[in-house]
Amino acid sequence: MDCNFNSNDEVKKAQEIFHMYVEGAYGLNSQQDRNKLIEKGCFKGAAEHNKFIEIFSDGAITGDELNDLTKSGYSLDFVGELKRLAGGDGYNPLREHVKWLTDNCVPKWYRIRDYKSGYRAEMIKMLAGIIDLSVIKEEALKAVTESLLSALNDSARSVRSAAAGTLGKIGDESAVPMLILALKDSDQDVRSAAAYSLGKIGNKSTVPALLRPALRDEDKYVRSAAVYALGEIGHKSAVPTLISAFKDKDTYVRSAAADALGKIGDRTALRALNLVVSNDIDPNVRSSARRAISTIKK
User: Fold this and answer.
1) Nearest 10 degrees: CA dihedral of 73, 78, 80, 83?
2) Which of 43-52, 135-144, 152-161, 279-288 has the highest mean pLDDT?
3) Rounded CA gap, 247 and 242, in Å?
4) pLDDT tens-digit series, residues 103-129
5) Which of 116, 157, 250, 289 has the maximal Cβ count within 10 Å?
6) 61 with 82: CB under 8 angstroms?
């Protein structure tokens, strides 16, 4: 493989290519990636770039693929380093390379507004995956939170929805006021994500906002997210409204209401839950009510 790297740089070359594709696999511009690597002399052209796109696209580097690279003329140092980075035969970049991702990518990704509109939602989704691993440094996480709060006002609904959902993963109570405002967003996905995140944050001050207007929302997914959130927050003031949710026409909302009452654990809900077991036409709703009754009686 012709490349402007010395033989002693094969390890470095493998690292650069690997990290470029790990980053690219989560929504960065593959055309941009290709051009960077071609400019550095790593690839002769698009065909060689596409070879690595195929290798990385299924989320694993197999032993056969590593052997094929060796047979194609890639050096043992190059292939060996790819195998080491991959953690053997197969890889999970968020598991094996989370330190690299955190140290090198998060400082760029939290500047969401700097990206073109087509990538902003993908950047947030990638951040959400890393946030799940609880490895982002505290100072970076604060910057991420501030950027996500700004993204709640983005012109693209996909960005607003992704931002609302990711703020729940962070769990910073400073996001509560903006998430409450997002319950009135024109897009139902944004409203649903905001309600869900308010439940994950668990601040009891959000109960009135979830009771009104989220539980009266025209969209069933928003209503079910609000019901879920009330169950996560666990405040008994929500019990009467959750009981009234058994009149909802959507079975998922009724089932979620039963689950939420079980989480809250207030015995005043037992009568209503028993009526659901006896009268609701949907077997999943009745099953949820039975589980809730069992939980409350423990």
Assistant:
1) -100
2) 279-288
3) 10
4) 555 556 556 666 666 677 777 877 776
5) 289
6) yes
Q: How far, in Å, CA of 250 to CA of 217, rounded?
A: 12
pLDDT in tens, 68-98: 888 888 888 888 887 877 665 444 444 444 5
Q: Walk me through the domains of the chain, giving residue ranges and CATH numbers.
A: 7-93 (no CATH), 97-204 (1.25.10.10)
